[in-house]
Amino acid sequence: MFPCGAVCVLLLAVFGGMITRRRCPLNHVVSSMPPELAISPKSIFATLAADRRAGRAAVLSACVIGVFAGGIAVPVVFAQMIAPRIESMEPAENFTTPELSVQPVPYRADLEIEGTLPEDGVRAVEDSVNLLSLAEEEPPSAVGLIRRAEADRDRIRGALSAFGYYDPDIRIDIDGIEVADPELRGQLSARTSDAPVPVSIVVDPGPQFTLALYEVEAVDGGPLPIELEPGSPPTQTGVPALSQTVLQYERSVISQLRDAGYALARVADRDAVVDFETQEMEVVLSIDPGGQARVGPMIVSGLEHVEEDFVQGRRPFSEGDLYSPETISELRESLSEPGVFSSIRIDPADSLNEQGRLPLEVTVEERPRRVIGFGGDYSTTEGFGLQAFWRHRNLFGRAEQFGISAAIARLGETEIGRATYRLETTFRKPDYLTRDQALLIDAVAVQDNPLAYDRRSFSVSAALERQVTERLTVSAGVSLEALRIVDAQDVERDFGLIGVPLSLRYEATDDLLDPSEGFRITTSLTPYTSVLGEAGTFAVGEAEGSIYEDFGSEGTFIAAGRVGFGFVATDKDMAEIPANLRFYAGGGGSVRGYRYQSIGPRDEQGRPIGGLSLIESSAEVRYRVTDTIGVVPFVDAGMVFDDPYPNLDAELQIGAGLGVRYYTGFGPIRADIAVPVNKRDGDDDYALYISIGQSF
């Protein structure tokens, strides 16, 4: 039986389509009729439209009936047709599913480079060959080995082109057959030996191409709006056509345009043509300079606790200033200085705004507002020292810093009650009254009991710190100090001092904590007047300079030197000057190898009494053995004098030794052992110092 329902549906659908879709010219129908049967075109059109509607109704009815009939009849008829065949089928015997297996292909690869190739080019080729670097990872099949070789051929070609070799001869043979040979796959599949497949890679770089032409033009074919620096791009021919050189010239052109205010300058097209006959490359660079841009508004996102107007006030430029990349660098540095952001991202907009200015989008991430820290040190002459601090980085929303620190020193060197104790609170408000000016407030309580004196003191100070330039910082303030001193002769004195501390710092090093290049100079002068005691009016001045040079070793070999001096200007006898404001030398931060404050004038019992002037110097050679370990031979020298000015002809006490540095992410940990070179009676044979940070 045939599925009649389906046939009905099909025939009716075709017939209905003929009725509904038939097209005929209306004028032809009218003209072909006999005159007695002639009717108007309007009547014919109405008749055809009625026929169409009737045809569509017939098709729809037939489809419904056909689907119903076919839906029942077709499955029944189909089952009757195939039932006899199903009954006559026999079950298959010994049917098994084919196994899919993966057989790794071990191989042994050798690389041979013929011709002349610079050493860095050889390394680049070697690094590009996965057949060598992935030899331990066997390909899963012969096809995998072939594909790895084919990919290496392109990688080698790319590595060579970076050095100006654009026509190399690269041959890769697998099991003695060139990798492009169509018979290679069959031979590898038929291979029965378990021995590694030999792979030979022979590279002849060929001649090095030269740069014959490098032209730069504006996108409209005219000249650029600025004069490029001489030699950028190069005008001479014969320069090796290294890809790095070509891109370097390109970056130089864009950089010069942006330095001139063309912030949106870009490469519109780069046409590089290699001539294999002349072995030369010609490059034509098409630049779209855009228009000169002026700095627009700064849009800040990511703020949580820092006030936006504080961030806006840190801008080192005014809106409307000519744009330059230096603007971005200065802005990033200015936003980093307060120490409240862990990351700063500055993105110039892709286009100018309606005012023709370039907006800057600044995205920041704030650092945790509260931080704690700990430290420690040890020396055989001064005992143990411990330090701890707590600091709030953003107290009122404008990067105000408030901190509390505590320190204990000379533990183990003296009884616990006579150890040195120091408690300090500090407050720093940046951009006080104007940008780059900070208000500093400090309060310190100290108990100190070295060999020269016993001290109990409390002081408060306030100062304005001004960053004059990127490197120069000055400050001026006022201090009040009340102290009680018991000197080496057991004479107790009380003092009340008003001071005017002045300081200057010039920082030209590459790193504040672990410098390798540059120099720094620090000076201070504090005039005092005594409102309690007999010290009268006097001034204490200090100056220190240090220099660092790595001789181009990138931090591996650093020579460091330091020299410092100090003086007390007074018309009083030295005994009238508070003992803690006199000068002393010796110890880990002074002349290593000698006990703390042991260098200088002494009384009849051999106890240090301090002096009115000081001179010190140090020299170190910091050599890094590894990235984390370094050794440092050093020599220190110093002396303290009775007079207000150092005696440069006097004999200095000298200490020398050897140190070890362990470099960490927060600075070096140092351990120094030193001996007194011109040892005196009572001096120790050696001294050991352990602390965090370089000695200077």
List keywords for this structure.
four-stranded mixed β-sheet; 696 residues; 28 strands; 21% helix
Task: Please state the structural category.
Answer: alpha+beta
Give the count of helical stretches: 10
Strand content: 35-45%
Oligomer: single chain
The span between the termini is 107 Å
Would you report the number of β strands?
28
- Helix residue percentage: 10-25%
Structural Rg: 45 Å
Nearest-integer average pLDDT: 85
Task: Write structural notes for this entry.
By secondary structure, the chain is of the alpha+beta class. The protein contains ten helices and 28 strands. Strand 17 (453-467) and strand 18 (472-487) form a beta hairpin. The longest helix has 48 residues, at 41-88. The protein starts with a helix and ends with a strand.
Would you summarize the structure shown here?
By secondary structure, this protein is an alpha+beta fold. It is 21% helix and 39% strand.
